[in-house]
């Protein structure tokens, strides 16, 4: 494998995002549920308060209740018992309330984030999708969200618990004895540095790990989606080797992250246990010389154990924080991509179409298209397709036919100039309005999970079953669909739902038929159809779709027979333009092509 | 009885987890050592209160400074030992556990690659992916924490309880009382939790599938402006998942509540009793401090059992999901058995009349189709003579692609047999079969690697640049040389995106690069423009002159590449002949080739 070139951000997993984007993303996720976050925090505050009273009661019991009982006064003892009972019930009940409440908050944040990634990815333009791997997008919305889930579910609770118990216990210790408390608080300084070091090192490791898993996912998805060629060309072993390499990289990064954690745990435990020993030593000395009560020392020691108890858990939090931060950074990078085909700021509207005349006029006004890298695909041109005209676009691969179609479908926006639909710039049309106007059927007839009927109804979701069937009948797809195990309700991914490439194109065409657009673009949409299938499509175009403006890109010239007009393209320019009969009669490129096609029919 | 059901659930969770053993075996020594180290470390933590007791009742009471120093020194040493031991535990398992995860993932990948194509038709790759990523991460975490700590904490609790009982048996018993209800709650709730956890994992898989489809089908989504309905479907799945996760949280909250409250109540009772005993002089203050210190030290081990069990349940369902895929039988071994149906036991020597590619009474029904449904293909008898090319023509959906998939055994014939030069294809190793038979698929898939490697993957190792150039020339894919980095340009998922026609030509080059003896081409020229098609045909003719080939064709131009044509209709070979013969004599063929209802 060749190394990815460093100058192309798409070769890296991490897309550039403005500084602070990650924090801003996190803030914007939390902001709408500020009140509930506050409630959750209060619940946890109270719960921790209830939990942390325990040792205080022990101190009270040893220093006050024991002498009182010796004096046959049971008041303090009853107070200790009642206090403990109350604390136990409170800490349990608050725990239940907190777990429920925090789950609700974190699930809502995740819901929001999943939705944002999904919607944003869907809003990003085709040229983004052509460069950003589907595997990476999938990894953004699965494993990366998953790591945030871990942070939200376990991590945040850990963090709040840890911080709260640090604060509570430090306060308790300081209150019990200023000296002992000061030593305990002093031990936070080395802990702080340990955490800083860990964060820096782990951050690096986690970024590497998240990149490594994304690479694994890309390879995995690619293999499973291309299983037929993998099998037929015996790629299994070669794939195993390639996968093993990616997998090993992930394994290494994974191991590194676990080792970083081990280092942190040893360091923090050492600091904590040394502090405990020191405090006990000093405290014991002071009890011995009478300047400290025994109960206070006992409580202090119990608190100390608790003080450092969550250190490991703090490590776990940092762990999930680092991993989530690495993921969030990538998600923020993705969300920072602005769609190069944005929704209009001031949405326009198409003029009402004339009754009985459903097509619309298409005009390319001084349009020029070049890739951002500089390669010019279509030099500046003007072109008008009158409403209702069927235009065939022919030309060799790379002549710019598909680019023309994609500009018209607004998969791309022109670099210069405007594409107008009945005089309205496509950029001013909201998506829903645009798709009522223009529909494009491409060669890759993708089917979604679900029934065949659902797949056809993508063209018009509110269509009735009868309408779906009518569309299928017109296009000649009804017979094969009825023959499927459950007819129109057959799940295309389940039992017996196998559908051939030609059948998929028919389904895709039925979709377009149902959508009933003013302008229909067919980009190689009939390449896998047999001749009867192609004829059915042509029939549909001259009957059901009559009067629509149609742009047909086809390698096979049979389509041209139904076209009113032919555009021949070469090197991004229209070099011939005229009625089919005229062009065939002439001596140009099209006459030549047509002759070759005639010959191929034999 | 919920209890019984929960117990069976529990047992089956253990059974699921036991299946991990083969993967854990290689690292068992390390894992066990780590567990032992953790037990020692944990018990070290339990000794600390005892030192404290000794300190309070001894040197502190006696006002003995030297003893205080000694006590503190013990504490320090114990603390250092505990820290180092916990570090060692993590260090011991870090690499091995990553290795286990990676090993399981590699196995899954290897296995999935070898599962029948029919399996992949049935399973969305998102479901497979979530098994290979999230589920395996859960398993690694299970091996790292719950597995070790259920043992460690169990032992710690036992030791702690023993220490407490030794110090004061009455207080010890009081603290033990909640054990029974806590255990009962755990068992009951874990069973329910397991079911909900499984549902959540499956829902994640569905979500992954939807995300994947929305990305792969982005052109359709955009072309029809279907963002909204996709987003609605996505929202619905997300909302389901949220509901399940909240259900999970409710169960977890209850377990936590019980696990937190009951032991705390017991400790409170012990405190009250202890105070009375100390006041009566039956117990030393040091013992009470040590006792409570121990009880509180056991808090974490006890509380953790709730989430350790929850994690174990999730790991168990993850294991089930993992093995659901792993338990699928891969394609039979080298001389693999066909899925069903009789076949000749031994290959007979090739006789001249058997040479070439021959279908004998082949019948095929998809293995997952209803057994009473009519087979897709039946009584297929077809003989393609050596060096001959046969076009396969039939209406859309007549089973042409399926028939071609039978030759390299991507699907297994239901009955009948296919022979290459007289040898039954089920009698030769798949590797050998697939080396002999090269395929160009209807959908030209390119992999994320260089153009050169994409083409050369069709050839035996050591095929050189000359063969690459030759194959590119035959497929008229010379455009590859003009790419930014020539044939070293990366394409596919992570590279340059090529047009349909370009991909198709590369796929064709891939099929011919290894000079295969048998060639199966599925509508190989559909995406080419007229001129390119003519040029490819001319070059392909030379290759086909001495190659036995089966070519699925939709158009006369492609049919004319072949010497003869077979018409597939109603699941049978309805006619065989030259293009002209069939055009004149077969109405269906004439219809397919001209689109007109009446034969010319």
From TrEMBL, chain A:
Domain ABC transporter: 362-596
Membrane topology: Multi-pass membrane protein
Major localisation: membrane
Residue ranges crossing the lipid bilayer per the database entry: 37-62, 74-98, 182-199, 266-285
SMART domains named among the record's database cross-references: AAA
Keywords per UniProt: ATP-binding, Cell membrane, Membrane, Nucleotide-binding, Transmembrane, Transmembrane helix, Transport
One Pfam entry name: ABC_membrane
InterPro entries: AAA+_ATPase (IPR003593), ABC1_TM_dom (IPR011527), ABC1_TM_sf (IPR036640), ABC_transporter-like_ATP-bd (IPR003439), ABC_transporter-like_CS (IPR017871), P-loop_NTPase (IPR027417), Type_1_exporter (IPR039421)
Gene Ontology, cellular component aspect: plasma membrane
Residue ranges annotated for the ABC transmembrane type-1 domain, each copy included: 38-323
Subcellular localization: Cell membrane
Any one GO MF annotation of this record: ATP hydrolysis activity
Family listed: Belongs to the ABC transporter superfamily. Lipid exporter (TC 3.A.1.106) family.
Record protein name field: ABC transporter ATP-binding protein
From TrEMBL, chain B:
UniProt-listed PROSITE patterns: ABC_TM1F, ABC_TRANSPORTER_1, ABC_TRANSPORTER_2
Domain ABC transporter: start-end pairs: 357-595
All copies of domain ABC transmembrane type-1, residue ranges: 32-314
Subcellular location: Cell membrane
Keywords: ATP-binding, Cell membrane, Membrane, Nucleotide-binding, Transmembrane, Transmembrane helix, Transport
PANTHER family per the UniProt record, alphabetical: ATP-BINDING CASSETTE SUB-FAMILY B MEMBER 10, MITOCHONDRIAL (PTHR43394:SF1), ATP-DEPENDENT PERMEASE MDL1, MITOCHONDRIAL (PTHR43394)
Name of the molecule in the record: ABC transporter ATP-binding protein
Keyword set includes Nucleotide-binding: yes
GO molecular function: ABC-type oligopeptide transporter activity; ATP binding; ATP hydrolysis activity
Transmembrane segments: 31-56, 68-88, 141-163, 169-189, 251-277
Region (Disordered): 328-347
Alphabetized InterPro entries for the sequence: AAA+_ATPase, ABC1_TM_dom, ABC1_TM_sf, ABC_transporter-like_ATP-bd, ABC_transporter-like_CS, P-loop_NTPase, Type_1_exporter
